[in-house]
Each structure stands twice: as structure tokens, then as C-alpha cells.
Design brief:
The protein is 0% helix and 53% strand. It has 123 residues and is mainly beta. The chain is globular and about 40 Å long. The protein starts with a strand and ends with a strand.
Length: 123
């Protein structure tokens, strides 16, 4: 069973940047896996942010973050990252990484989840 741990969250001013990391602390990420980032703001549903296949360059982004966020991975470190640039106030949320086997933006398709990391964007 893969266990995931996010890090890198914190406070940031609007227009600033943060890089989130998600490491597999136990188990390994199989080559068929899809790794994704989701976020959940207070009182709102968990929403898709970005995903990548573990062993290809294929990526998918939510329209709200296209051109500002980038997802990438380091297979040797069993880690996936989310580089977030030009952050907006609406980006304030808990960010979660997840592992699944389907190329999907629906959180129900993901099996393993991290505990989340808080990102707070000051307007």
C-alpha cells in the first residue's frame, strides 16, 4: 500500500509562487499509476488541479490553473511536484496528492491520498 506525504504549503502573497511535493513514503508507485493533485477550499468540494502519468509525459490541467501551474515528477525519488506560479486568492485551499490507475479528474477514481498541505494566498 502506497502512503503519500505532501509538503511545501504555506502562506504566500497573490502573484507569488510555491512548489508542493508529494513523496511516496512507503510502498512504490507502479509504472501504470496516475498521480494527481486536488485541492479543497473551506465549504467547497474537492476539485481537480492536475495529473500526470507516472511513466510518460502526459499531463492534464484544470482550466483554472493552465499556464500557471506545472506538474512534474522525479521517478527516482518517488516524488511528484506541483509548481504553482502567479497564485491567486482563490487558490487558498488544502492541496492533496493522490494515486490512481485511471487518467481521470474525478477524485473517486483515486485510491491513495496524502494528508494534505495548506496553501494560503493573501490577496
Amino acid at each position: 500500500q502506497v502512503q503519500l506525504a505532501e509538503s511545501g504549503g504555506g502562506p504566500v502573497e497573490a502573484g507569488g509562487s510555491l512548489r508542493l511535493s508529494c513523496a511516496a513514503t512507503t510502498g512504490r508507485i507502479y509504472s501504470s499509476s496516475v498521480m494527481a493533485w486536488f485541492r479543497q477550499a473551506p465549504g467547497k468540494k474537492r476539485e481537480f488541479v492536475a495529473l500526470t502519468r507516472w511513466h510518460s509525459s502526459s499531463t492534464l490541467y484544470a482550466d483554472s490553473v493552465k499556464g500557471r501551474f506545472a506538474i512534474f515528477r522525479d521517478n527516482a525519488k518517488n516524488t511528484v511536484y506541483l509548481q504553482m506560479n502567479n497564485l491567486k486568492a482563490e487558490g487558498t485551499a488544502v492541496y492533496y496528492c493522490a494515486r490512481g490507475s485511471k487518467y481521470a479528474s474525478n477524485p473517486a477514481e483515486y485510491v491513495n491520498w496524502g494528508q494534505g498541505t495548506q496553501v494560503t494566498v493573501a490577496a
